[in-house]
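Quick one:
INPUT:
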């Protein structure tokens, strides 16, 4: 379903770049790896490609590492990309919780741990199995919308559990969490309108407040109607309910898949970070 997965390695050492490149490629040959020795090369790469992970050192021959990160955070393709700083000074850290922070670093890795540990950390974060199935819970009552959306999901090999009723969807999520000791659903997609008294806003609020699934544990995508000429999108209601993102009808396939991809990456990266141990 998703586009080519890419990793950007930025390190001024030719030997280090070569070792990392060869070992990561050996274990994950389907990953597209670009290795750069200077900030100039890296800036060209981030302008051209979207990366899943970027690793960089602090001392580069032509730019300070943090200045490069600030540039990356301003690039349209990689403003939300996970960035790892490989540093020999674990005390000199800027960990930004807000990914809009122009210098936000996702994680630090102590270079003293060695190349193999860094390789393992990267592979653990990105996930060695690039074919992990995407699991979606979809709540909608419109036969037309259901047919269109289900066809898109099925064509792209996305596992979908559809419910007409919000209460049934909530019960499924509860049972899934109880059975697996965690939420295994990647994305909750819901229309605003429901056949039950609970609408899309209330469904997401219940997921957040009662099930205690936050934005990272269960990303949500709300389906809304395109506002009329004299109407405005209710951003306050949409995001106030705890929604990660929204999409308007009629559903565009490419737009839907891009939004699902972004939300799946949010969940997978959160899971990888919780199972990893950066310095």
């Amino acid at each position: 379903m998703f586009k080519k997965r890419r990793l950007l390695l930025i390190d001024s050492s030719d030997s280090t770049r070569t070792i990392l490149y060869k070992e990561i490629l050996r274990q994950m040959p389907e990953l597209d790896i670009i290795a750069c020795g200077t900030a100039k090369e890296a800036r060209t790469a981030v302008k051209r490609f979207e990366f899943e992970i970027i690793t960089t050192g602090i001392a580069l021959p032509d730019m300070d590492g943090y200045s490069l990160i600030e540039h990356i955070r301003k690039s349209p393709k990689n403003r939300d990309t996970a960035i790892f700083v490989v540093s020999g000074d674990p005390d000199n850290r800027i960990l930004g919780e807000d990914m809009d922070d122009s210098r936000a670093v996702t994680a630090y890795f102590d270079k003293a741990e060695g190349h193999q540990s860094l390789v393992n950390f990267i592979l653990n974060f990105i996930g060695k199995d690039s074919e992990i199935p995407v699991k979606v819970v979809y709540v909608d009552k419109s036969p037309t919308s259901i047919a269109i959306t289900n066809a898109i999901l099925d064509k792209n090999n996305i596992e979908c559990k559809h419910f007409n009723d919000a209460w049934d969807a909530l019960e499924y999520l509860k049972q899934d969490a109880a059975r697996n000791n965690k939420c295994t659903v990647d994305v909750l997609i819901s229309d605003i309108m429901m056949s039950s008294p609970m609408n899309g806003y209330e469904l997401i609020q219940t997921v957040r407040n009662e099930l205690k699934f936050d934005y990272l544990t269960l990303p949500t995508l709300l389906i809304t109607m395109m506002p009329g000429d004299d109407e405005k999108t209710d951003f306050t209601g949409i995001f106030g309910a705890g929604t990660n993102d929204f999409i308007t009808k009629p559903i565009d396939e490419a737009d839907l898949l891009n939004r699902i991809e972004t939300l799946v990456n949010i969940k997978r990266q959160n899971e990888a970070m919780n199972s990893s141990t950066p310095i």
